[in-house]
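[Meeting: bench + compute handoff]

Bench side (C.D.) handed over the final construct sequence. Compute side (W.E.) agreed to return the predicted structure before the next meeting so the bench team could plan truncations. Sequence as handed over:
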Amino acid sequence: MTRHHHRYIHTLEVDIDRHNIDALIAHVKYAASLDEVGAHRQDGWPSMASGNGSSGGGGGRRMSVVDEDGNPDEVPTTSTEAAALANIDAHRQPDPIHNIVRSSVRALQQIADALNRLEGDKVRLQALRSTEDVADSPQCYIASVVHQLPWDDAWSPFRATDFDTYLPHKFDEPRKVCRWSYEFVRRWRRLPTEHEMRTYLSVGVVRIHEPASTNNRTH
């Protein structure tokens, strides 16, 4: 990424804004309805042929579809459809509208995937900002300030919180805490001791000794 990103993002924004996504989706649905009834298949004769593909007059069958504006419409069938029913599909020419529908559906899937990626990026950025906006030590507040433990990757900030709903005496303001400390406080409703944090750092598990009436648990 470069310093010119804002200009490029604006260019993309203008390009995106000029498209009416609702109208495009409606058009794809309309094309798909035509594809389903096979009304567009051409055999070189007028679609209102007399049912056998000859160039003679009207009276061919018609089928109901819904156009891109959501209005009912009727389209004529062709002798190609009759040929398909007669099991001579192998001789039919490539179906252009079916190919268009497939291309359009793939494009819509790519748009949906891109939007999901943008939503995921938004969530990740919000999670990062929840720690970056709080000014205190570059690692877990409980490790570095409460217990003054040395820096370690294990104490990397996970989120900012004041533990309002988990501690009887919450922090005076949101503080950055590591994932392990956050989950510990949520489960045990207290801060981990220095010994517990050092034990977790050395062996990866801490045994919590509860009163006799409660089974011992590990965290």
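W.E. noted at the follow-up: Residues 141-218 form one domain. C.D. will use this when planning the next construct.
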